[in-house]
Amino acid sequence: MSQLIRLRAIEGPHCGLCWESRTLLRIGRYDQSEIVLSDNSVSRYHAEIRASSSGWVLSDLQSTNGTHINGSRVGSGPHPLQVGDVVKIGDSSIKVETILGSSFSLLPPVPPSSLQIEATTRTTWNKAFEGLPLDTAQTAKPGEPLLALLRAGRHLVYIEQEEQLLDSILLELVSVLDAQRGAIVLAEPPQQVLKLKAVRYAQQNPRRPLSGALTEPGRCAYSQSIALRCFKYGESILCQRIQDDPELAMARSIEWGEMASVLCVLLRTPRKQLGVLHLDRGPHQRPFNEADLRLADALAANVSMGIESAALLRKQRDLFLETITILAQAVEMRDPNTGGHTQRVTKYALLLGEAIKLSTKDMELIRIGGPLHDIGKIGIDDSILRKPGPLTREEFEIMKTHTIKGAEILQTVADLNSIIPIVRHHHERWDGGPGGYPDGIGGQAISHLARVVALADAFDAMTSDRPYRKGMPPEQAFAEIERMAGRQFDPVMAHCFLGIKDRILQTIDENTVSDTPSRQTRLIQDKF
After folding, report:
1. pLDDT tens across 86-138, in order?
2. Which residues have C-beta within 8 Å of that of residue 261, sequence separation ≥ 6?
3. Minimum mean pLDDT range among 82-91, 107-116, 208-217, 465-474
4. Could you point out which of 89, 167, 170, 490 has its C-alpha 20 to 30 Å from the C-alpha of 505?
């Protein structure tokens, strides 16, 4: 029997959605179906795809308007499916993208008899919730499971960063299930390799790691063998007494992690399996029981939609940053003298942002605003932008307008309004004196992000070559920043920038490997 099938909608109102299953996919307008098609031409119970002894097969459930495979209407079936087949139901065309085997074959085999498992549960995303709030027989406080679901899900409303979301979810689940530790392990495409993404220790655990650490030195955050089985077979697992299983008791992750009982539950949505949630208790705690397994399974189903959405948002951000980088490179290609400038400025600005402890949101704005800080140069004439020598006073006045032109470009994209201050004000002076442009503002009136980028931009301008002048060595540039602190640059930020000299120099060395020309030049007002 095939282990897994993956489908993707390639046409219609659900285009782009994916679904996966190891057993059954029901298709129809019924909201309990695994594939819900909101289309009046689709029957309530339209068709189903299930695993059989001979492979995956599709059956039409006597639908009103029929089911088509590769353009041909089929009967009640069953009809075998192969990779590449296109199933058309109503306005939706759904392609059989993968039948596995293949991507899961890279996971180490986990024989069913190799683990001592007290209980498992294999439910659909919808079924995970049924009856749970009413199960009060083994619950200290009636209604507590429902409250736990609400508490665990509240993080999905206001957290967008994937790392923060995973950490917040674990914080709640470790508390709700009285675990000594929790871990989230997600499958990474294309080979669906399980990778540890987040770890959270109970607040009272004296051995919990420092913030941001995924594991404690010499300790393991989860049992790989149990996690692999959970994900491979698509079932949530309760290992109640690990010490009674010779194989598990000898595993390094179990021994080093001081795990006495384990819950390993499947993170999944109606469309796909995402990974596993791993919770463990120590030898001095009460072992997990089947009620804990049901609660953990429901909690995992509850938070999986948010985890999937956060991953999609991260992918969208990554794609957006790639697009921005390409756009910045296109601007730089117009001026052969500034190759790699925006990339280096962004790196220096991010290093400074870390040093002054900018928020996650501000760091994200620098990742976007850094590459785009000179976007306005796209509106500067080539005779000025590509001039091989120093600019005249008139030419320099035109060059200065790149800050205004850049701000005007970004005003047309609402989602980029937050980085307009970086683009418009990265050439302003802290003292508000002559030479700062375009608005001649100073001090706190300059956005703190613009002040960060201004320092990074100036340093790269000083340490970059131009055809008509040789730049200064980095140490001389650092000295110039120190001299201009409180005049051209925010004095606090200048001090912090000087405090990360070693990291800046390391970045320069790393860039030198790929950069052909050196990047040394002087500060003050030139054509940049």
Report:
1. 999 999 999 998 887 533 334 454 444 445 666 666 666 656 655 454 444 44
2. 238, 239, 240, 241, 242, 280, 281, 285, 287, 288
3. 208-217
4. 490
Q: What count of other Cβ atoms lies within 10 Å of the Cβ of residue 68?
A: 15
Residues near 79 by beta carbon (within 8 Å), at least 6 away in sequence: 57, 58, 59, 69
pLDDT (0 to 100) of residue 160? 57
Q: What is the pLDDT of residues 386-420, one digit of tens each?
A: 888 888 999 999 999 999 999 998 888 777 889 99
DSSP string, 467-515: TTBPPPPHHHHHHHHHHHBTTTB-HHHHHHHHHTHHHHHHHHHHHHHH-
Q: What are phi and psi of 483, to 5 degrees?
A: -65, -35
pLDDT digits (tens, 9 = 90+) for 4-59: 898 999 999 888 888 888 888 999 988 778 899 988 899 988 999 988 777 888 99
Q: From residue 263, give the alpha-carbon distance in Å to each of 127, 224, 276, 426, 506.
A: 19, 12, 10, 52, 44
Predicted pLDDT of residue 149: 52
- Enter the tokens of residue 302: 């509850």
When pLDDT is averaged across residues 60-80 and rounded to a whole number, the result is 88
Nearest CA to 223 out of 178, 179, 170, 261 is that of 261
> Residue 233, exposed/middle/buried by CB under 10 A (0-12, 13-18, 19+)?
middle
Question: Which residue's entry shows tokens 């003292």?
Answer: 431
Tokens of 282: 């120590």
N- to C-terminal Cα distance for the chain?
65
* Predicted pLDDT of residue 207: 46
* Beta bridge partners of residue 176, listed in sequence order: none
Rounded to whole angstroms, the Cα distance separating 335 from 333 reads 5
Q: What residues does 184 pair with on adjacent strands?
A: 198, 277
pLDDT classification of 212: cutoffs 50, 70, 90: very low
Residues 459, 453: Cα–Cα separation, whole Å: 10
Structure tokens at 315: 């992918």
Q: Which among 398, 407, 347 is positioned nearest to 372, based on CA atoms?
A: 407
307-313 LR contacts (CB < 8 Å, sep 24+)? 307/162, 307/165, 307/166, 307/169, 307/184, 307/186, 307/267, 307/274, 308/269, 308/271, 308/272, 308/274, 309/156, 310/159, 310/160, 310/161, 310/162, 310/165, 310/166, 311/162, 311/186, 311/274, 313/160, 313/162
Are the beta carbons of 328 and 342 closer than 8 angstroms?
Answer: yes
